[in-house]
Design goal:
Layout: E1 5-9, H1 13-30, E2 37-41, H2 45-48, H3 54-57, H4 65-73, E3 78-82, E4 94-99, E5 107-111, E6 125-128, H5 131-140, E7 145-148, H6 153-161, E8 167-171, H7 172-177, E9 186-187, E10 202-207, H8 211-218, H9 223-239, E11 247-254, E12 257-265, E13 272-279, H10 284-298, H11 301-307
Parallel strand pairs: 1-2, 1-3, 6-7, 6-8
Antiparallel strand pairs: 3-10, 4-10, 5-8, 5-9, 11-12, 12-13
Helix pairs in contact: 9-10
């Protein structure tokens, strides 16, 4: 008996699915009974603010600050996040203790009457709250009308199905996890639509000094996914990346090496700088930093200043 384990999470359908996946993994690996693991839904500022982009409201931390406060206060033992929604720099005292195996990293098109992104009608209204997706869309389809779309995954899908929007882009992983895979019109190719850092990854955060929880999480950690996430987060950190920055990064095993491909874009997608780095997976953070520094060397100072990175 390890005592009750309290898992903090947002209360959305996807967030609860992820928290339950962590609970089930812990129960299976450590032989725990259901009553020994409690899921604690926590309302976050990001859930309350729906009328403006996160970049204007305070950043990705709006989806985690209340949960992290509960973690630091000891009212929960671990927190489950969509890794792409986590702040680039964690609050002092907190660490990512484990990741579950990564899902599909691709973005998915959800459209009312088009089979592919190329087939979306000229001038169509496409909803997104992601600067990365907006920049990539503007690069590929500058004719489209990009509109702000906030809310949970089912809400965004419903706005397309009702005709309020012609299309939206969502993480394929989220749609698959909550049983909405049939809503995917097309999966976008990685060479044209690279993912957000951490996309498709469930990250579990805990207190750095909590050896009991760290030991428990060690039993469910998917090492390859954790290496990839550490690499992508180091890439973001090297750029000073945030939700105010159109940036994409994807790390994965290439033979025995861990390889990261990263890109930094202007907000309209017309200007971009790319980098690739690879090495021993044990040096995941170093690989990510190398790619980030490479982009900072390549990009003009004026470009970096406009995006607020590299400073």
């Amino acid at each position: 008996m390890v005592g009750t384990i309290r898992i903090g999470t947002r209360g959305s359908r996807l967030a609860l699915w992820q928290a339950n996946a962590v609970r089930d993994a812990l129960a299976a690996v450590h032989g725990l009974a259901g009553q020994e693991i409690e899921i604690v839904p926590i309302k976050t500022s990001g859930d309350r603010i729906r009328d403006r982009p996160l970049s204007e409201a305070g950043g990705k931390g709006l989806f985690s600050k209340e949960i992290e406060a509960a973690l630091l206060a000891g009212s929960i033992d671990m927190a489950v996040h969509s890794a792409k929604d986590m702040e680039t720099f964690l609050v002092d005292g907190l660490v990512i203790g484990a990741c579950l195996e990564r899902e599909d990293v691709r973005d998915a098109l959800v459209a009312k009457s088009a089979a592919t992104l190329d087939a979306v009608p000229q001038g169509a209204r496409v909803g997104t709250a992601s600067l990365r997706r907006e920049a990539l869309l503007r690069r590929l389809r500058p004719d489209l009308a990009i509109e702000l779309l906030r809310g949970n995954v089912p809400t965004r899908v419903a706005k397309v199905e009702s005709g309020e929007l012609d299309a939206t882009l969502l993480a394929a992983a989220g749609l698959k996890r909550i049983g909405l895979e049939d809503k995917i019109t097309a999966l976008l190719p990685l060479d044209k639509f690279p993912p957000a850092c951490g996309q498709g990854t469930i990250a579990i955060e805990c207190r750095g000094e909590d050896s009991r929880v760290i030991d428990l999480l060690g039993g469910i950690d998917h090492r390859q996914t954790s290496h990839a996430l550490a690499c992508e987060r180091a890439f973001l950190a090297a750029l000073g990346g945030s939700c105010k920055t159109p940036v994409a990064g994807y790390a994965r095993l290439d033979g025995l090496l861990l390889r990261l491909d990263g890109i930094l874009l202007s907000e309209d997608g017309r200007e971009s700088y790319q980098a690739t780095a690879s090495g021993d997976p044990a040096d995941a953070a170093g690989i990510g930093r190398e790619a980030g520094v490479d982009i900072l060397r390549k990009a003009p100072a004026g470009f970096l200043k406009r995006l607020g990175v590299g400073g």
